[in-house]
Amino acid sequence: MTFEGVLTKMTTEFTSPVNYYLIFNDNFIHMNQLLDKTIRFSFVKYECLNCHLDKPIFRQGFCKSCFFDIPQAADWIMKPELSKAHLDEEERDLDYEKRVQLQPHIVYLANSSNVKVGVTRKTQVPTRWIDQGAHEALEILEAPNRYLAGITEVALKDFVADKTNWRTMLKNDIKDEDLCVWREKLIPAIPEEARDYIITNKKETEIQFPVLHYPKKPKSLNFGKTQHYEGVLKGIKGQYLIFEDDTVCNIRSNEGYVIQLTIN
Ligand SMILES: [Zn+2]
Fold first, then answer.
1. Last residue within a domain, chosen from 177, 206, 235
2. Is there a single domain that holds both residue 35 and residue 132?
3. Which Pfam families does UniProt cross-reference here (predicted)?
Protein backbone atom coordinates (compact mmCIF):
# COMPACT_ATOMS: atom_id res chain seq x y z
CA MET A 1 0.00 0.00 0.00
CA THR A 2 1.35 3.44 -0.95
CA PHE A 3 0.34 6.84 0.36
CA GLU A 4 1.54 10.23 -0.79
CA GLY A 5 1.28 13.58 0.93
CA VAL A 6 2.99 16.52 2.57
CA LEU A 7 4.32 15.85 6.07
CA THR A 8 2.87 17.84 8.96
CA LYS A 9 3.30 17.00 12.61
CA MET A 10 1.42 13.89 13.70
CA THR A 11 -1.93 14.34 15.36
CA THR A 12 -2.16 12.57 18.70
CA GLU A 13 -4.76 11.15 21.02
CA PHE A 14 -3.98 11.08 24.75
CA THR A 15 -4.58 7.41 25.44
CA SER A 16 -2.31 4.87 27.11
CA PRO A 17 -0.19 4.50 25.09
CA VAL A 18 -0.60 7.64 22.92
CA ASN A 19 -2.20 7.13 19.50
CA TYR A 20 -0.46 8.79 16.54
CA TYR A 21 -1.96 9.72 13.16
CA LEU A 22 -0.24 10.99 10.04
CA ILE A 23 -2.75 13.16 8.20
CA PHE A 24 -2.65 13.53 4.42
CA ASN A 25 -5.06 15.46 2.18
CA ASP A 26 -7.45 12.66 1.41
CA ASN A 27 -6.62 10.04 4.06
CA PHE A 28 -4.79 9.37 7.31
CA ILE A 29 -2.58 6.62 8.72
CA HIS A 30 -2.86 5.31 12.27
CA MET A 31 0.88 4.98 12.88
CA ASN A 32 0.60 2.65 15.92
CA GLN A 33 -0.68 -0.03 13.54
CA LEU A 34 2.61 0.10 11.63
CA LEU A 35 4.71 -1.03 14.60
CA ASP A 36 6.91 -4.00 13.63
CA LYS A 37 6.18 -3.38 9.94
CA THR A 38 8.64 -2.37 7.22
CA ILE A 39 7.99 1.14 5.92
CA ARG A 40 9.61 2.79 2.91
CA PHE A 41 9.82 6.56 2.53
CA SER A 42 10.68 8.39 -0.68
CA PHE A 43 11.06 12.13 -1.02
CA VAL A 44 8.91 13.56 -3.84
CA LYS A 45 9.21 17.36 -3.62
CA TYR A 46 8.82 20.32 -1.30
CA GLU A 47 5.50 21.92 -0.48
CA CYS A 48 5.63 25.03 1.72
CA LEU A 49 2.83 24.73 4.29
CA ASN A 50 1.77 28.33 3.57
CA CYS A 51 2.17 29.07 -0.17
CA HIS A 52 2.11 25.38 -1.24
CA LEU A 53 4.87 26.03 -3.81
CA ASP A 54 7.68 23.56 -4.48
CA LYS A 55 10.34 25.74 -2.83
CA PRO A 56 13.05 24.55 -0.40
CA ILE A 57 11.83 24.44 3.18
CA PHE A 58 13.59 26.96 5.41
CA ARG A 59 12.10 26.45 8.89
CA GLN A 60 8.91 25.17 10.54
CA GLY A 61 7.63 23.78 7.22
CA PHE A 62 7.73 27.15 5.48
CA CYS A 63 9.81 28.42 2.53
CA LYS A 64 12.16 31.30 3.27
CA SER A 65 9.93 34.10 2.00
CA CYS A 66 6.88 32.82 3.93
CA PHE A 67 8.96 32.30 7.07
CA PHE A 68 9.95 35.97 7.12
CA ASP A 69 6.50 37.21 6.21
CA ILE A 70 3.60 35.32 7.81
CA PRO A 71 2.36 35.89 11.37
CA GLN A 72 2.57 32.12 12.19
CA ALA A 73 6.39 32.32 12.02
CA ALA A 74 7.09 35.55 13.94
CA ASP A 75 9.65 35.64 16.76
CA TRP A 76 7.06 35.63 19.56
CA ILE A 77 6.10 32.06 18.58
CA MET A 78 9.45 30.73 19.83
CA LYS A 79 9.99 33.58 22.32
CA PRO A 80 6.62 34.18 24.04
CA GLU A 81 8.11 37.03 26.10
CA LEU A 82 8.25 39.13 22.90
CA SER A 83 4.43 39.07 22.59
CA LYS A 84 2.91 42.56 22.21
CA ALA A 85 -0.77 42.07 21.34
CA HIS A 86 -1.74 42.90 24.96
CA LEU A 87 -0.30 46.39 24.29
CA ASP A 88 -2.27 46.62 21.02
CA GLU A 89 1.04 46.66 19.14
CA GLU A 90 1.33 44.91 15.78
CA GLU A 91 4.24 42.68 14.80
CA ARG A 92 3.04 41.20 11.50
CA ASP A 93 -0.78 40.93 11.74
CA LEU A 94 -2.49 42.31 14.84
CA ASP A 95 -5.76 40.40 14.37
CA TYR A 96 -3.92 37.09 14.23
CA GLU A 97 -1.65 38.08 17.13
CA LYS A 98 -4.62 39.04 19.32
CA ARG A 99 -6.42 35.81 18.51
CA VAL A 100 -3.44 33.64 19.44
CA GLN A 101 -1.76 35.65 22.22
CA LEU A 102 -4.78 36.94 24.15
CA GLN A 103 -6.02 33.58 25.39
CA PRO A 104 -5.13 31.46 28.43
CA HIS A 105 -1.54 30.20 28.38
CA ILE A 106 0.03 27.59 30.62
CA VAL A 107 3.54 27.60 32.08
CA TYR A 108 4.49 24.01 32.79
CA LEU A 109 7.29 21.78 33.96
CA ALA A 110 7.90 18.73 31.80
CA ASN A 111 10.39 15.91 32.06
CA SER A 112 11.48 14.36 28.77
CA SER A 113 15.26 14.12 29.26
CA ASN A 114 15.56 16.54 32.18
CA VAL A 115 13.12 18.88 33.92
CA LYS A 116 12.36 21.87 31.71
CA VAL A 117 10.03 24.84 31.78
CA GLY A 118 7.78 25.68 28.83
CA VAL A 119 4.83 27.75 27.65
CA THR A 120 1.84 26.64 25.63
CA ARG A 121 -1.71 27.71 24.89
CA LYS A 122 -4.11 26.05 27.31
CA THR A 123 -5.86 24.32 24.39
CA GLN A 124 -2.52 22.58 23.59
CA VAL A 125 -2.39 20.68 26.92
CA PRO A 126 -1.45 17.79 26.86
CA THR A 127 -0.67 17.78 23.09
CA ARG A 128 2.42 19.93 23.57
CA TRP A 129 3.85 17.52 26.18
CA ILE A 130 3.21 14.51 23.95
CA ASP A 131 4.97 16.31 21.06
CA GLN A 132 8.02 16.83 23.27
CA GLY A 133 8.16 13.22 24.38
CA ALA A 134 7.66 14.14 28.04
CA HIS A 135 6.81 11.17 30.27
CA GLU A 136 5.57 13.51 33.00
CA ALA A 137 4.41 17.12 33.15
CA LEU A 138 2.77 19.59 35.53
CA GLU A 139 1.00 22.94 35.02
CA ILE A 140 2.30 25.61 37.39
CA LEU A 141 0.72 28.84 36.12
CA GLU A 142 -2.25 29.83 33.97
CA ALA A 143 -1.87 33.35 32.57
CA PRO A 144 -4.53 35.29 30.61
CA ASN A 145 -2.08 36.02 27.77
CA ARG A 146 1.12 34.81 26.14
CA TYR A 147 3.27 37.68 27.38
CA LEU A 148 2.80 36.94 31.10
CA ALA A 149 3.48 33.25 30.52
CA GLY A 150 6.59 34.21 28.50
CA ILE A 151 8.15 36.43 31.17
CA THR A 152 7.52 33.70 33.75
CA GLU A 153 9.34 31.19 31.56
CA VAL A 154 12.28 33.57 31.15
CA ALA A 155 12.53 34.08 34.94
CA LEU A 156 12.46 30.32 35.60
CA LYS A 157 15.11 29.56 32.97
CA ASP A 158 17.69 30.77 35.46
CA PHE A 159 16.88 27.73 37.60
CA VAL A 160 15.74 25.03 35.18
CA ALA A 161 16.45 24.09 31.53
CA ASP A 162 14.22 25.22 28.67
CA LYS A 163 15.42 22.61 26.17
CA THR A 164 15.04 18.88 25.72
CA ASN A 165 17.99 16.65 24.86
CA TRP A 166 16.35 14.62 22.07
CA ARG A 167 18.96 11.84 22.16
CA THR A 168 18.41 11.23 25.88
CA MET A 169 14.63 11.43 25.41
CA LEU A 170 14.74 8.81 22.61
CA LYS A 171 17.13 6.47 24.40
CA ASN A 172 14.68 6.62 27.31
CA ASP A 173 17.64 7.37 29.52
CA ILE A 174 15.30 9.08 31.94
CA LYS A 175 14.67 9.61 35.59
CA ASP A 176 11.40 10.13 37.40
CA GLU A 177 11.24 13.48 39.11
CA ASP A 178 8.72 14.79 41.59
CA LEU A 179 7.55 17.84 39.66
CA CYS A 180 5.49 19.09 42.62
CA VAL A 181 8.74 19.42 44.58
CA TRP A 182 10.25 21.36 41.64
CA ARG A 183 7.18 23.60 41.58
CA GLU A 184 7.63 24.49 45.26
CA LYS A 185 11.29 25.33 44.64
CA LEU A 186 10.50 27.52 41.61
CA ILE A 187 7.47 29.48 42.87
CA PRO A 188 9.58 32.17 44.62
CA ALA A 189 11.22 33.00 41.26
CA ILE A 190 7.92 33.78 39.47
CA PRO A 191 7.78 37.51 38.56
CA GLU A 192 5.50 39.83 40.56
CA GLU A 193 3.21 40.61 37.56
CA ALA A 194 2.37 36.93 37.10
CA ARG A 195 2.03 35.78 40.70
CA ASP A 196 -1.79 36.00 40.77
CA TYR A 197 -1.91 33.22 38.21
CA ILE A 198 0.13 30.54 39.99
CA ILE A 199 -1.69 27.20 40.25
CA THR A 200 -0.78 24.71 42.94
CA ASN A 201 -3.67 22.24 42.80
CA LYS A 202 -2.55 20.20 39.78
CA LYS A 203 -1.09 16.72 39.84
CA GLU A 204 1.52 15.34 37.46
CA THR A 205 0.25 14.01 34.14
CA GLU A 206 1.96 10.76 33.11
CA ILE A 207 2.34 9.87 29.44
CA GLN A 208 3.02 6.42 27.94
CA PHE A 209 4.44 6.18 24.40
CA PRO A 210 4.07 3.26 21.99
CA VAL A 211 7.69 2.04 21.89
CA LEU A 212 8.77 -1.61 21.54
CA HIS A 213 12.48 -0.89 21.42
CA TYR A 214 14.49 2.25 22.22
CA PRO A 215 17.51 3.18 20.04
CA LYS A 216 21.01 2.94 21.55
CA LYS A 217 22.64 5.48 19.22
CA PRO A 218 19.88 7.45 17.50
CA LYS A 219 20.77 8.63 13.98
CA SER A 220 18.60 11.39 12.61
CA LEU A 221 16.84 11.08 9.22
CA ASN A 222 16.03 14.15 7.14
CA PHE A 223 14.36 13.78 3.74
CA GLY A 224 16.20 16.84 2.42
CA LYS A 225 19.43 14.81 2.71
CA THR A 226 18.29 11.17 2.46
CA GLN A 227 15.70 10.78 -0.25
CA HIS A 228 14.90 7.09 0.26
CA TYR A 229 14.76 5.15 3.49
CA GLU A 230 13.38 1.76 4.46
CA GLY A 231 13.17 0.34 7.97
CA VAL A 232 11.11 -1.52 10.55
CA LEU A 233 9.14 0.83 12.82
CA LYS A 234 9.84 0.07 16.49
CA GLY A 235 8.25 2.99 18.26
CA ILE A 236 6.95 6.53 18.33
CA LYS A 237 7.92 9.08 20.98
CA GLY A 238 7.39 12.83 20.84
CA GLN A 239 7.18 13.52 17.11
CA TYR A 240 9.87 10.91 16.35
CA LEU A 241 9.48 7.62 14.51
CA ILE A 242 12.01 5.10 15.84
CA PHE A 243 13.31 2.33 13.57
CA GLU A 244 15.02 -0.99 14.26
CA ASP A 245 18.41 0.18 12.91
CA ASP A 246 18.47 3.16 15.36
CA THR A 247 17.36 5.62 12.66
CA VAL A 248 14.96 8.19 14.08
CA CYS A 249 12.82 10.57 12.04
CA ASN A 250 11.51 13.78 13.58
CA ILE A 251 8.32 14.41 11.62
CA ARG A 252 8.34 17.99 12.93
CA SER A 253 11.65 18.82 11.26
CA ASN A 254 10.45 17.20 8.01
CA GLU A 255 7.29 19.29 7.74
CA GLY A 256 6.72 20.63 4.24
CA TYR A 257 8.34 17.62 2.52
CA VAL A 258 6.08 15.65 0.20
CA ILE A 259 6.83 11.97 0.67
CA GLN A 260 5.62 8.64 -0.58
CA LEU A 261 5.12 6.08 2.16
CA THR A 262 4.91 2.42 1.29
CA ILE A 263 3.92 -0.26 3.77
CA ASN A 264 5.02 -3.82 3.07
ZN1 LIG B 1 5.99 29.57 1.09
1. 206
2. no
3. DUF2797
Residues 57 and 81 in one domain: no
Whole-model pTM: value is: 0.96
Q: Based on the domain organization, do 95 and 157 belong to the same domain? A: yes
Give me the domain span that covers residue 238: 2-67+211-263
Max CA separation in the chain (angstroms):
58
Ligand 1 center from residue 8 Cα (angstroms): 14
SS (H, E, C) 200-247: CCCCCEECCCCECCCCCCCEECCCCCCCEEEEEEEEEECCEEEECCCE
Query: 112 and 236 in one domain?
Result: no
Alpha carbon of 122 to ligand 1 centroid (Å): 28
Amino acid found at 92: R
18 CB burial (10 A radius; 0-12, 13-18, 19+): buried
**What is the total count of domains within the chain?**
2
- Contact between 36 and 231 (Cβ < 8 Å): no
Q: C-alpha 164: how far from its chain's center?
A: 11
Provide the residues around ligand 1 (an ion) whose CB is within 5 A: 48, 50-51, 63, 66
Contacts of 249 (CB under 8 A, 6+ apart): 41, 220, 221, 229, 240, 241, 243
- Residue 44 and residue 135 in one domain: no
115/124 Cα distance (integer angstroms) = 19
Residue 163's pLDDT band (cuts 50, 70, 90): confident
Q: Distance, CA 65 to ligand 1 centroid (Å)?
A: 6
Residue 156 CA to ligand 1 centre (angstroms): 35
pLDDT score recorded for residue 251: 98
